[in-house]
């Protein structure tokens, strides 16, 4: 794939990188870094994303104007579609020595606060994956 050169939303040519909404079905769009970051933050900061859409959309039918403003729980969808055979990455990929992952930030029972299960160390039955940020991973 050639290097991303021109942002397909703004036409800018600086700091352009690829983005795809579905990394399992790779059909990327070239985006300027600031637009790319705002796109990823659209669930937390919808007004910032709407300003970009309002500024650059012409018909309202552009791919970026039609993006969902509701986060997708891909892990939950895969689990519902494929059942229990979906792998638990923590069972399959051992973490390096000295790294602790706070499981209460990874698994939660639907409808319950993730903080209700802090430090239990137990596996939760019905789960949803939530994003782990690097600041959440601690060395021991």
List keywords for this structure.
4 helices, alpha+beta, disordered C terminus, 140 residues
What does this structure look like?
- It is a single chain.
- With 140 residues, the protein is an alpha+beta fold.
- Helices cover 23% and strands 11% of the residues.
- It contains 4 helices and 6 strands.
- The chain has helices spanning 33-40, 46-56, 74-82, 89-92; strands at 16-19, 29-32, 99-100, 107-108, 128-129, 138-139.
- The strands form 3 sheets. It has a two-stranded antiparallel sheet with strand order 1-2.
- The radius of gyration is 19 Å and the shape is extended.
Largest sheet: 2 strands, antiparallel
Low-confidence stretches: 114-140
Strand content is 5-15%
Count of helices? 4
Order of helices and strands: EEHHHHEEEE
- How many β strands by DSSP? 6
Average pLDDT figure: 75
Oligomeric organization of the protein chains:
single chain
Radius of gyration: 19 Å
Inertia-based shape: extended
- Binned, the helix content reads 10-25%
Structural class estimated from helices and strands:
alpha+beta
